[in-house]
Amino acid sequence: MTDSIPHGSVRRAAAARLPQAVSLLMPSTYTQPVLDWYAANARDLPWRRPGTSPWSVLVSEIMLQQTPVSRVRPAHQAWLARWPTPAALAKEASGEAVRQWGRLGYPRRALRLHETARIVTQAHDGVIPADYDVLRKLPGIGAYTAAAVAVFAFGGRHAVLDTNVRRVLARLSSGRQFPVAQPSVAEYRLAEQLLPADPATAARWSVAVMELGALTCTAARPRCEQCPVATQCAWRAAGRPPSTQRRPGQRYEGTDRQCRGRLLALLRESPVPLGQEHLDVAWPDAAQRARALDGLIADGLVEPLPDGTFSLLELPASRCLPARPGTRPRWRGQHG
To answer: pTM here?
Structure first.
């Protein structure tokens, strides 16, 4: 799933062409039942607790990209214990961020988070910005992440559409088992239409409907009997028809991504740079191993040294890398 939201006049013009049925949906239809359900069923997650910092929320959102909560919870705790503020991380070399990232996967996220910490420290006095548009300019912060931080850290009023939310709304309003591959203008319009007018209530609604998708309106085994809005669900009323679109599976074994992970694990766990002979034991296919290593170097994760060895790239802490526009892959969501 891409991380793009139509904005401004483009969004308004497109929304004006939406079916009348969408515009008639009112927030009060679902709001209170879902909020009451959330009050009784919400998980105790560290980035949701009262008093948690915006930095904690931002770290959680980056870590939760394509990574389940069960793996993120200990990693998030360890990260915040080591670097409780953006300034603390900004003082470190980038390789330390990759080492701390461990086996969460997609280690470029660690580099983007490190870049963000430096930019926030230098350009924003170490304070995570609350404004959605400012957040969007940070490295690797796409539309979803910017909206999530603005809402969950600062109580902003924005539509937060992750996979869980999209699935709930598709079933409730459209009668489809799963949403289409890419979010449409109609989806964003509906999500915005359902936001309560009060920003604090809207922020709570956003996390509540996300939790509903993670715990009850799940992809594989939805528990409709426990859903607070089951009587209003178009998909359930239609007899829960299966989706006609094929959901692509994700293969990991034998992929370049697995090979990259093996190489990074060796470099991360070694106190000294490693020679090619040490990396060769990580993966049997020499061509694939070379391709993966080249990719790690190109991505700025690994540095080839003059003596022929390799190490995690260590950028000097004084250097602030420029923000690069990032796109967000399909994700599990904040609470999935």
So the answer is: 0.73
